[in-house]
Each structure stands twice: as C-alpha cells, then as structure tokens.
Fold this sequence. Notes:
The chain is 0% helix and 59% strand.
Amino acid sequence: QDNIRILSHGKSGNYSLELYDTNSRLVLSTGGIFNSDLRIPIPDFTNGIYFCVIKDDKGEAFTRRIVINKR
C-alpha cells in the first residue's frame, strides 16, 4: 500500500497528527484534520517503525506505533 489509513471510528472534530521515526525526528506534521478517515501517503518513507501522535482540539492525545514494510 502507498498510504497509512487512520480511522477515528465515526468521531469527527479538529485533529492534528505528528509522525515520528524511532530517533524522535518529526517526519510529518499536519493539522486541521476534520475527516474521520484519513489517508497519509507514504511513498517516500523508508521501512521501519514510526510513532503517530494524534491530538484533538481539547488537548487530548494518543500515540500509536506504525510499522512500514514496503516490499
């Protein structure tokens, strides 16, 4: 696949997303996300582990680990 798909399970709102590599480098940052089905293109990302931090407009955040393994 050429995309990471992130679903908020029907919850909509104003979200921001940050993607970090395992060296804590910020590799992607985007804000103003209102869609509950977000697709992030990853053709330029190398294989590896990334951490996705999603924050809502109330300041609540959660982190998920993402593994990219393109063949």
